[in-house]
Amino acid sequence: MLTVCHLYPDLLNLYGDRGNIIAFTRRARWRNIPVRVLGVRLGEPVDFREVDFLFLGGGSDREQSLIAADLQRRAAALRAAIEAGLVVLAICGGYQLLGRFYRTLDGTEIPGLGILDFYTQAGRKRLIGNIAIEVELEGKKIRACGFENHSGQTYLGAVKPLGRVLRGYGNNGRDGWEGARYKNVFCSYLHGPLLPKNPALCDHLLRLSLRRRGLDGYLAPLDDSFEKRANEVMLHRLGVKG
Amino acid sequence: MRLRFWAAILAGKGAYHLSRITGGRGSSLPGLVALRLFPEMLGAFARQARCGAVMVTGTNGKTTTNNMLARVLEAEGARVVANREGANLVTGVTTAFIRASGLGGRVGYDWAVLEVDEAAFPRVAEVVRPRIVVVTNFFRDQLDRYGELDKTVSFIRSTVAKLPATKLVLNADDPLVAMLADTGREALFFGLGAPTRGEEAQGTTREARFCPYCGQEFTYDYYHYSQLGAYRCSGCGFARPRAQVEALSVQTLNGVTRSVVRVRDEVLTLTLPTPGFYNVYNALAVFGAGLWLGIAPGKVAASLHRYVPATGRLQEFVYKGRPVYLNLVKNPAGFNESLNLLTASREPKDVFIALNDNDADGRDISWIWDVDFERLENCKEILRFVCAGRRAAEMALRLKYAGIPVQKIETCSHFAAGVRRALEGYGSIVYLLATYTALWPVEKILRRLATEVNGADSVSPVPRSS
């Protein structure tokens, strides 16, 4: 039994974020791997050691401010779990929260959880549009696509990017990188949502979760023709070869 | 000044005819052209309204509410200018006036009844200075265009605060709408009483689970869909206001929606010729506007009884003797309501979904993951899903992840092939759901196919009589 945790499912679920949970659980169940989903709301307890896959989505400013204090209380436990290999997918606002701080336009620094070494700077221009990136997973390169919509521009310190931007803006529209990666944590601005259209990435997260449980990470192959088609249509539109 | 006004009208009228000749609808282009020549055009038109203007805004239900209200006023003998086709930006609103005006630019009407997009609301309201503003609801819609929902709400709020003479008609069931009353404007509320629909509303996407004033989680006595219902905040006491217009029970049967409506102290029966439950909300908003305008509720009910839906607002067609419904889908709340139609009856049906991602649809289609397609997982009555449009592949993918067997899901690269596939299924009802820019092409194809098969006479839209 794998346990998926959606932290603040009612607050951090800005735009189709739950598609990532749907993809993860379906792809496990199609292989007869039992999964349960824990929705953890404000103030509700959760033991991260029991969680196999943690999902952090995006939220509006109002919603993010509601969770800030609650999240700070969980920071130490979350950090320990991440250091111990917890598999995490953090998108957009959830991504920014894991970093050192968010600097607003007037220079105020809102502290993040400081678990990953990067910071985010508010930008005047919103970075919006379809995006394609190249991600390396276990030695294989895949082309992922999605939609980005963020005004925060993220700059990485001692963490690796998730991938290289092929089309679109990525972390800050300048350095050509998208997302961040640290241990088993995957951060991205692709909220498209990320996992359904990019099944290799979804399976990679599933495999990491199984291995961390001490199970063998073998996943029976699935018929991914719908997934491939959706991915290829977008890559083609963006002028990227699949 | 006068000369530029005429020049702009002539250019606008020219653009309209050109657009029609080339197969367009001419619902926005004339306004665009005219405003380029004479930016103050909309204000000049609006001042001609003898009685004034009513504006309808909100996320869902604008077009229906607006057209219902225009009908009610016309039945009262008023001459009305309205943008009936849902073109609701500054250009679309201006076009409505150009089409209604003579060459001299005189419009000669009593009322302007205008549906206005939330983002365009501040600009249009400042020039038009409406006597009445109706707000239907606020749902998340096209975040790539508008940014966050909170911003939309605050724009409308600050605009309303600048219009001291404007009266409001507000949805009591939506906390984000109801809070507009604290702008100090005179307000009337409409809402639904405790639910009578058998099933529990299942929407998981709620825009306002938390009190917008103090952040406490709302307690709901009941809710209808999304965040609409009877909410209370235990923190600051903000709660659903008492509604002057309230539907007490709603029933949908054989394509007709009936309910009992209380308007102040008067109780009457409302019959709408549509199976769309949510249209009761639109009708209630019209009763509310009617109260401000001094139209007797009985007269409002009589006009609504004969209401013919606008293009793609659950518009009914007949193809080979079977009913075909065309409905616009554009955000999770509205799409979930469309899914209610699919699961409401036991007849076998075919479903066509056209998903585009042009600017007017919203370029980001992530919202389809917030629609509760999972409800259709075990729905045996749906025989087939045909997906079309620029994002057909992603629509198909969404259905697959909802647990629908892939054998039931098809994609068609062209609308015509897709519509034909759905119409020639074995179901006894066909539902065609389309995003904004897919709606008119699909309607055109539908009319053409229906004419080929039925001959012109039995081609609908068929207004249902009851």
* Cα-based radius of gyration of chain B, to the nearest Å: 22 Å
* Widest β-sheet, arrangement of strands of chain A: 2-1-3-4-12-11
At CATH level 2, the architecture of chain A is: 3-Layer(aba) Sandwich
Number of strands of chain B: 17
The helix tally of chain B amounts to: 15
What is the CATH class name of the largest domain in chain B?
Answer: Alpha Beta
Element-by-element helix/strand order of chain A = EHEEHEHEEEEEEEEHHH
Kindly give the count of domains of chain A: 1
- Tell me the distance between the termini of chain A: 34 Å
Query: Helices and strands of chain A: which structural class?
Result: alpha/beta
| Mean of pLDDT of chain B | 88
Share of residues in helices of chain A: 25-40%
List the helices and strands and how they pair.
The complex is a heterodimer of chains A (242) and B (466).
Chain A: E1 2-7, H1 18-29, E2 35-40, E3 53-56, H2 61-83, E4 87-91, H3 93-98, E5 101-103, E6 109-111, E7 118-137, E8 140-156, E9 163-167, E10 177-178, E11 180-182, E12 185-188, H4 194-197, H5 199-212, H6 225-237
Parallel strand pairs in A: 1-2, 1-3, 3-4, 4-12, 5-7
Antiparallel strand pairs in A: 5-6, 7-8, 7-9, 9-10, 11-12
Helix pairs in contact in A: 1-5
Chain B: H1 2-21, H2 29-37, H3 41-46, E1 52-57, H4 62-75, E2 80-82, H5 90-100, E3 111-115, H6 121-128, E4 132-135, H7 143-146, H8 149-161, E5 167-171, H9 175-178, E6 187-192, E7 218-225, E8 228-233, E9 245-253, E10 256-263, E11 266-272, H10 279-293, H11 297-305, E12 313-319, E13 322-328, H12 332-344, E14 349-354, E15 382-388, H13 392-401, E16 409-411, H14 415-423, E17 429-434, H15 436-454
Parallel strand pairs in B: 1-3, 1-4, 2-3, 4-5, 5-6, 6-9, 13-17, 14-15, 14-17, 15-16
Antiparallel strand pairs in B: 7-8, 9-10, 10-11, 12-13
